[in-house]
Amino acid sequence: MIPCEKLLSLAPEDAEFGREFLARNGITESDLVVGVHPRASAAIKEWGDDRFRELADKIVSQLGAKVIWFSEPGRPPAKFDDNNKDIVRAALPLRQFLAVLSCCHSFVGNDSGPMHMAASLGVPVVVIFGPELPEWFAPLGAGHQIVVRQGMWCRPCSRKCRFAEPYCLRLISVEEVMQA
Known about the structure:
alpha/beta; 6-stranded parallel beta sheet
């Protein structure tokens, strides 16, 4: 894995919070930890909870990883069966979110603020792009993977999709993201 440049740092007490959060949730230092954040600033930029959940299940089963499923405090969480103890939900204020995010070995998300925060913390990112151009909004630094559906004549649409749904995202498979 190519190391990413770290542009953002945490206070020692915040870093300690991140380690304690993992320990409280049964995640050890030897575990592979992958952060997942299925939201973006606009719904048109979201790949979809169902796809992220399928991806999280594959990350757990195929890689033996622990997944931290991030969501914003106060926003209704994604609806899914909570039977998988290897997928931990986290709805945290910003500083605590950054603390836990910094403990992740990688991060998967949409073209979003949390993706940029992960990259700034030096966490390798797999980002799923839809209506925007990766050339304009890709994460800074090396070691990141961009998943984008090529050949979409309508991109960029500036969040004004002319279709009933953003096919630029819907045509990206879970397998494509898993490979990235």
